[in-house]
Structure formats: structure tokens, C-alpha cells
Model the fold of this input.
Amino acid sequence: MFKSPTCGPCHKAGPIVADIAGELGLILSILDVSIDPETARERNVTAVPTIILEKDAEEVYRMVGVPNRVEFENVVKEFAK
Done:
């Protein structure tokens, strides 16, 4: 998840993403775009929060904003198969 410490929606999205990752035993990486803007540029992140799901080192899903917990959990489960 790409975030910024001054981003209100990031503070809402973080716990949702962390809970789902923890429940499903997935790896969660959180990158602060104010500390590492180069990686954000390389990944074409233009807004925060941006959540990118990867499978086999390939991006399979991207969303910007605060996810609806149930919908996001369903998406994650689909790609975690």
C-alpha cells in the first residue's frame, strides 16, 4: 500500500488492508511516498492511498482510495488462490 502520513484516507485504509492481509496470511508492504517518491513514480502511483496486489511478481489489481472491506476482501481472496 502506498500512503502518506498526512493522508486522512490512508489512515482509514491501512487497518482494513492490514487486517485482511493478516487474516489471509499474506505479505503486506507499506510505502510512504514522502520518504520514497521514486518508487511511487516507478509504479505510476499518482494518488494515495493506492493498493496494488501482486501475484508471481506481477500486478494483478490496483485501486485508489479506501476500500470497502467486504468487496476488497473478496478481491484479495480471488487473487490469493
Remarks:
- The two ends are 20 Å apart (CA to CA).
- The mean pLDDT is 95.
